[in-house]
């Protein structure tokens, strides 16, 4: 999926980002929960951004994957009890064991609160029903078969996409490139490469809700006239 995302941003979204103004990458402070070396941003009732940085230098810049975090703040509750932080929206409940460092299957989990389609996610859970993404190119393809002289034929292999029947998709932006804040934005590497920058998208309807949830923060906000 990474190659497809990079191609999409260079060809489609990079011109928009390069000429955009404002600071939509910075989330509304009311949506942010920061405790020590972790920060959580409730972007929508279905989307939670999760950051760990031992240096406490959290990223508010645009990335290749996310250029808009300044969204209407959804209703949520923050509870600290028994050494655990809980963030609860109408759809999701996130629990993190405070002062335990980098995110792992032992200290972080997210539950979907709908009893009919309940699931519990952590970093050890893998997707089994991903609906796949697109192919970067169809060059030398005959239908779904790759054909090239003196090379063995093989079937088209699609990378994972954001749509899944599992009920969730995880976007890992930890090592993704960022855009700088110059007049004509250009790409740069992250200063700290040991961070975790994850976004979990809850999907109740895989053919629709994932696209809606992802689009709200990967596309440029429309200017008000």
Short description:
The protein is an alpha+beta fold. The protein has helices at 2-19, 209-218, and strands at residues 32-35, 38-44, 47-52, 77-81, 84-88, 92-97, 108-112, 120-121, 141-142, 145-148, 151-155, 168-172, 178-179, 187-188, 196-202. A hairpin with a 3-residue loop joins strand 5 and strand 6 (92-97).
Please explain how this structure is put together:
With 225 residues, the protein is of the alpha+beta class. The protein is 12% helix and 30% strand. It is built from 2 helices and 15 strands. The strands form 4 sheets. Strands 1-2-3-15-12 form a 5-stranded antiparallel beta sheet, with helices on one face. It has a 5-stranded antiparallel beta sheet with strand order 4-5-6-7-8, with no helix packed on it. The chain has a 3-stranded antiparallel beta sheet with strand order 9-10-11, with no helix packed on it. The radius of gyration is 19 Å and the shape is globular. The two termini are 36 Å apart. The N terminus is likely disordered.
Main sheet makeup: 5 strands, antiparallel
Write down the overall geometry.
globular
Helix content, binned percent:
10-25%
Strand order within the widest beta sheet: 1-2-3-15-12
Helical stretch tally: 2
Low-confidence stretches: 1-21
Portion of residues in beta strands equals 25-35%
How many whole angstroms does the radius of gyration measure?
19 Å
The tally of strands reads 15
CA-CA gap between termini: 36 Å
* Alpha-beta classification: alpha+beta
Mean pLDDT equals: 80
